[in-house]
Amino acid sequence: MEVTVRSRIEQSIIEKSLKDCFQLQRESFHMHGIETNTERKQHLLNLKLLVTNHCDEIIEAINQDYGNRSRHETLLAEIITATDDINNNIKNLKKWTRVQKRKVNHSMYFGAKNRVIPQPLGVIGIIVPWNFPINLMISQLSAAFAAGNNAMVKMSENSKFLSQLFIKLVPKYFTREKLQIFEETGDVGIEFSKLPFDHLMFTGSGATGRKVMEAAAKNLTPVTLELGGKSPAVIDPDYPIEKAVERIMFVKQFNAGQICTNVDYLFIHESKLNEFIQASTNWVDKHIPDINSKDYTSIIDKKSYERLMSCLLDAESKGAKIINLNRQEANPLTRKIPLTLVLNSNDKMEIDFREIFGPILMIKTYQEPKQVVDYIIKRDRPLAFYPFSYNKDLVEFYINNIMSGGVSVNDALFHVGQHDLPFGGVGASGMGHYHGYEGFLTFSKLRPVFYQASFSSMKFLAPPYGKFATWVFNFLVKMKS
To answer: CA of 86: how far to CAs of 41, 89, 145, 398, 414, in Å?
Structure first.
């Protein structure tokens, strides 16, 4: 009874804190009016300084959250990518915010003008996952700030050290009216999603995404969902196996495979299977000889580690062949799992239908490209798709027949890092886009404005309708037929 009462009190405090911040940001937005480009640029520069001035602190906080996170991976995937995104937004800000001229669609509106004015929405809610917390938080904030919005950010419960660091640092660069960070302490995410944001951005699992969307729907809050799923790759038998291996295995070991756009499973021609396995073994021997190295990232928490190990046991017990490429035992203390291939999987195994999100690669063989297409299109649309081939017609066949959120050809993952490409899922892998101009659009209202001329011919077409109006309308109908 006492625990229940305390829980209700804590939830009430959380709810009030979130509502107070939202009200503060919304009132500030309305009082201040639309920000100038100079103001927006300064906010973007402050965001960049927040990252670059505290780079080492950020890297160490993420490392503590993971248990061990490769410093080089954090630099590449978080710091460099985030600051590049900010630089890109600053560079294009003037062009993106420019009032657009649009055509007036008929001579009866002679002298009138059409314009589209990009305007900020107001207060943006951003829910950030743990796997790339800086990359995702900063790139989404960068888009929101470029569009002229205020923002509230809810971080993951697995980003405890990073959350506490940002709660301490952000007030040095932004007022509470502009940006506030919230740590997940149990019920924050639920209450956060209930706020009547002008737009809500969520990155995470499909199951949580459904709950977020349900909560947002009560306020008719538009949402962008970046989810995940099982992203496939396929290797053309004429494509060099060693090149495919070095590219696929690099992204598979990166962040210990904990990437929503990682290669979840791979189709390889049955004639090339043994060659792929040997090339993968050679690559791992050279690049990841010891999973206990500080360069090899830990699985984020005990629950995730046990899920992955259970997934392997389940597959093996149901007939799958497990190939431990490192030939080292998984370490429950450091939560490190060797790079592993899974062969002969089937739909009765957990690995076959659940996103892996770890350093495990499921291998399937095929004989004809149509088999690959038939398998993938019967399942949820993936967040990414990776065809490896120099045959342009074959690549086009795959792209035209397999719908996914995005595509990298002859590599994996790197379409995500292109600032001038929109990023987003489709179907079960998400909805909406961000990055670059598409990010600016997501957090803007492209407001259409019609400017009537001083003289309007419409006054001659008002009722009571006479012969002139009848003649004009009949003439217009004939013109359009």
So the answer is: 10, 5, 10, 34, 18
Q: Please, which residues bridge with residue 179 across strands?
A: 151
- Supply 305's token pair: 């580690």
Share of the chain above pLDDT 90, in %: 88
Q: How far is CA 349 from CA 139, 346, 352, in A?
A: 36, 6, 5
Give the whole-angstrom CA distance, residue 42 versus residue 224: 26
Q: How far apart are CA 289 and CA 282, in angstroms?
A: 10
What are the pLDDT digits (tens) for 118-136? 999 999 999 999 999 999 9
Q: Show the 3-state SS of the chain.
A: CHHHHHHHHHHHHHHHHHHHHHHHHHHHHHHHCCCCHHHHHHHHHHHHHHHHCCHHHHHHHHHHHHCCCCHHHHHHHHHHHHHHHHHHHHHHHHHHHCCEEECCCCHHHCCCEEEEEEEECCEEEEECCCCCHHHHHHHHHHHHHHCCCEEEEECCCCCHHHHHHHHHHHHHCCCCCCEEEECCCCCHHHHHHHCCCCEEEEECCHHHHHHHHHHHHCCCCCEEEECCCCCEEEECCCCCHHHHHHHHHHHHHHHHHCCCCCCCEEEEEHHHHHHHHHHHHHHHHHHCCCCCCCCCCCCCCHHHHHHHHHHHHHHHHCCCEEEECCCCCCECCCCECCCEEEECCCCCCHHHHCCCCCCEEEEEEECCHHHHHHHHHCCCCCCEEEEECCCHHHHHHHHHHCCCCEECCCCCCHHHHCCCCCECCCHHHEECCECHHHHHHHCEEEEEEEECCCCCHHHHHCCCCCHHHHHHHHHHHHHHC
The pTM for the full model equals: 0.94
Tell me the per-residue pLDDT of 182-228, one tens digit each, with 9 for 90 and over: 999 888 998 999 999 999 999 999 999 999 999 999 999 999 999 98
Would you name the residues annotated as active-site residues? 226, 260
Name the region of 276 (left: φ>0; alpha: ψ -120 to 50; beta: rest).
alpha
Which token pair is 209? 């995404």
Residues of the chain with pLDDT under 70: 1-10, 480
Tokens of 328: 């080292």
Distance between CA 411 and CA 445 in Å, rounded? 35
Q: Alpha-carbon torsion 60, 61, 62, 65, what sign?
A: positive
Percent of the chain at pLDDT above 70? 98
For 155, the token pair is 């971080």
Q: How far apart are CA 126 and CA 216, in angstroms?
A: 12
Place of tokens 């309007």: 456
